[in-house]
TrEMBL record:
Domain Metallo-beta-lactamase stretches: 41-218
UniProt-recorded name of the protein: Glyoxylase, beta-lactamase superfamily II
Gene3D superfamilies cross-referenced by the UniProt entry: Ribonuclease Z/Hydroxyacylglutathione hydrolase-like (3.60.15.10), Winged helix-like DNA-binding domain superfamily/Winged helix DNA-binding domain (1.10.10.10)
Pfam families assigned to the protein according to its UniProt record, in alphabetical order: Lactamase_B, WHD_BLACT
Region Disordered: start-end pairs: 102-133
Basic and acidic residues bias spans: 116-133
Amino acid sequence: MSDNDDVPFNRNFPLKPGVVEEVRPGVRRVLCNNPSPFTFTGTVSYIVGKGNVAIIDPGPDDAAHAAALLDAVRGETVSHIFVTHTHRDHSPNTARIKQATGAPVYAEGPHRASRPRFESEKHNPESGSDRDFVPDIRIAHGDVVEGDGWRLEAVATPGHTANHLAFAWPERKFNFVGDHVMGWSTSIVAPPDGSMIDYMDSLDRLAARAEDLYFSGHGPEIPDGQRFVRFLIRHRKAREASILHRLAKGETDIPTMVRAIYIGIDPRLTTAAGYSVLAHLEDLVARGVVATDGDPVIGGTYRMA
């Protein structure tokens, strides 16, 4: 995508599905075989520690991936299960791993939207949300969970979803950032589940922390994490500037903006790009920079305020 040239994305991720790889001492990863335009090569689940371990993001409803994860920890005890957020490519397999291990599940809470739905918005039951997920133990920003030889701190990172958490391992300067930061592409922020205002605040929160090696929900690890986050902040501000540049030419709708801004986009991602533009417009309308008639929705028309 031409508009991503400002971010040094890394799409080199040769990990094969079902293979356990120790990426750093105390951190293993297993790739699920669920590739798509949204998941890249698939969802990455992490195993933290040795002997008594935690699993982060068991992945989609996929028996083969659950078997691969359990095979990777054969002879070990799974003491904790962590879930970064409730999209269907991250949380549904939790039930299988819990049933096999008896480990309690830690997460921010059930799925919820970032804001109430507007009357004019149709609820899409086919959206990627796992509405069945309920954690055993709800954790919030700053909560610390300790295991055998590891210690994870919950970092609130709403934006991609309202209940998104990253899990920092401060002593190792590692951060398991879920889908908030990805090395292969920008994250999708699609209202009402997602919020650009929250997303930008969460990027600032990560940039201010000391962890500098990020392990993402999809794709390769991200070295120099804070620098990468600063790239993403600049990229989002440039996207906002592109929207304002188009609106300066006159009132328009979201499909027109997508065509103007996302040159050469994979057609399968056009809808998602529209929701990303909507997320920016929600923010701009809230700040009084852009105007629309009624609520800021995907089918609306927009103009400079």
